[in-house]
User: Which sequence fits this backbone?
């Protein structure tokens, strides 16, 4: 997909070494952007980046995004090696599902620390340079379950609902500096995360999707690219659902 021309732009995509994040990275590269992709493991991310293009256009980095100091160090390295970041896509996330009565404190806090704390750690560092140059785009990948809830995912849906409030408040704070902050809320997308579901769960899920099928990573990328494009300059603080019609907001 090369609908847009992002030549000269540098994008930082967290969780860009696989799944939805990897598709976002490939789509950005196809539109001429340069990309810093991150994952948990620096070597694996670097290897993935090397498969995608030369070091001039794409490089891989890694650390635990729940660790604020490690994130700050990693962003410093990215800016030194690749230059100023224009687009931040907070895509990395994980699940640790359990029924609430069985959910351990560690399962609760880890999911909040990675999914919500991770976005905080990246925005905390990049908001300043974005404000200084009076330009920047932030897209946070939330989830349909942050909007409608899901049994067995109290921790995950809290983190994703939190990310929606985070997006709206940050959008208001950064708007005077010409920075937009939006969220994309995928429904059920075919990835490793959803491959792990049982056939029974997948069938009942499909029945709840008006369009009748699971989405693809490229459906999410298309929404992200639009929000990064010049045509979306007047859109901020929004949650764009990519969910086959599962949730329709007024
Ligand atoms: P995935 O499990 O395939 O990839 C997750 C990525 O996040 C990986 O690159 C992983 O390295 C990174 N990551 C996880 N924990 C990390 C940590 N502590 N530090 C650094 N990196 C870490 O997931 P998928 O399916 O591609 O999901 C991407 C995003 O989309 C996630 O935020 C997920 O919550 C969200 N989402 C996915 C849906 C789906 O149906 N697959 C539906 C709705 C939202």
Assistant:
């Amino acid at each position: 997909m090369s609908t847009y021309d992002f030549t000269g732009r540098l994008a930082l995509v967290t969780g860009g070494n696989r799944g939805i994040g990897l598709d976002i990275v490939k789509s950005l590269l196809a539109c001429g952007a340069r990309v810093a992709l991150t994952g948990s493991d620096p070597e694996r991310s670097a290897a993935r980046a090397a498969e995608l293009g030369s070091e001039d256009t794409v490089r891989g980095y890694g650390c635990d995004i729940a660790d604020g100091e490690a994130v700050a160090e990693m962003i410093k390295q990215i800016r030194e090696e690749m230059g100023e970041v224009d687009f931040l896509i907070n895509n990395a996330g994980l699940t640790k599902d359990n029924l609430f009565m069985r959910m351990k404190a560690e399962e609760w806090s880890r999911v909040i620390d990675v999914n919500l704390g991770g976005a905080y750690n990246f925005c905390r560092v990049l908001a300043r340079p974005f404000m200084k140059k009076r330009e920047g785009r932030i897209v946070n990948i939330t989830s349909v379950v942050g909007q409608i809830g899901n049994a067995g995912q109290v921790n995950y849906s809290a983190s994703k609902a939190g990310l929606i409030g985070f997006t709206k408040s940050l959008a208001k704070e950064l708007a005077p500096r010409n920075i937009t902050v939006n969220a994309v809320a995928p429904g059920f997308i075919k990835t490793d995360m959803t491959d792990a579901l049982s056939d029974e769960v997948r069938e009942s899920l499909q029945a709840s999707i008006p369009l009748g099928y699971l989405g693809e990573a490229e459906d999410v990328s298309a929404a992200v690219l639009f929000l990064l494009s010049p045509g979306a300059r007047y859109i901020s603080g929004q949650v764009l659902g990519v969910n086959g019609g599962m949730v329709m907001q007024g």
The two ends are 30 Å apart (CA to CA). Residues 15, 17-21, 39-40, 64-66, 91-94, 114, 141, 143, 186, 188-189, 191-194 surround NAI (CB under 6 Å).
